[in-house]
Amino acid sequence: MSFISKVLTEDEKIKLQAELHWVNYLAPVALLMLSLLFVVGFVFAVGEEESVVFLLLGAVCLVPALYKYLEILTTVMIVTDKRVINKVGIISIKTDELKNGKIESVEVNQTIIGRILGYATIEFSGTGTSKVYFCNVAEPWKIKSQIETIIGD
């Protein structure tokens, strides 16, 4: 049973599911390539001590790459007809929710690189100090306008 089906009520419908931008995959891919480089070093290592070091360094790079990749795959950013939900994490999970009626503003925070590559963080501000963030979202301006339409309904 998926996370989404666990948290939605019976009469709640998903209106929008935001997608992460491809830039999120850069760190796991870089770590994976570094891990492969160490494996190549392991294959061509002359001594036994060198080969063990290369193998350990390869494993040290591979574990966080796999963890980050799985974290990306399990990240959920949805807007329903009743609330905004953000879930991040694999082992320790952090969820943020904000009811649509409590949302005061939807802001897009975009860096220079984010503007060039087409990603940003969408910030939902609620009454009081509650906030929900959709980080590194692809097509942020399009998603912002869709969210404002959904919340305005």
Question: What features would you highlight for this structure?
Answer:
single chain, 153 residues, alpha+beta, 4-stranded antiparallel sheet, 3-stranded antiparallel sheet, 7 strands, 46% helix, elongated
> What is the gyration radius calculated from CA atoms?
20 Å
**What is the first-to-last residue Cα distance?**
29 Å
**Order of strands across the biggest sheet?**
1-2-3-4
Q: List segments where confidence is low: pLDDT < 50 over at least 5 consecutive residues.
A: none
User: Number of helical segments?
Assistant: 5
Q: How confident is the prediction overall: mean pLDDT?
A: 90
Helix-and-strand structural type: alpha+beta
User: Helix-strand pattern, N to C?
Assistant: HEHHEEEEHEEH
Beta fraction of the residues?
25-35%
- The total beta strand count reads 7
Structure in a nutshell:
The protein has 153 residues and is of the alpha+beta class.
What does this 3D model show about the protein?
This protein has about 150 residues and is α+β, with helices and mostly antiparallel strands. The chain has 5 helices and 7 strands, in the order αβααββββαββα. The protein has helices spanning about 5, 25-45, 50-75, 110-115, 140-150, and strands at about 15, 75-80, 85-90, 95-100, 105-110, 120-125, 130-140. The strands form 2 sheets. A 4-stranded antiparallel β-sheet has the order 1-2-3-4. It has a 3-stranded antiparallel β-sheet with strand order 5-6-7. The two termini are about 30 Å apart.
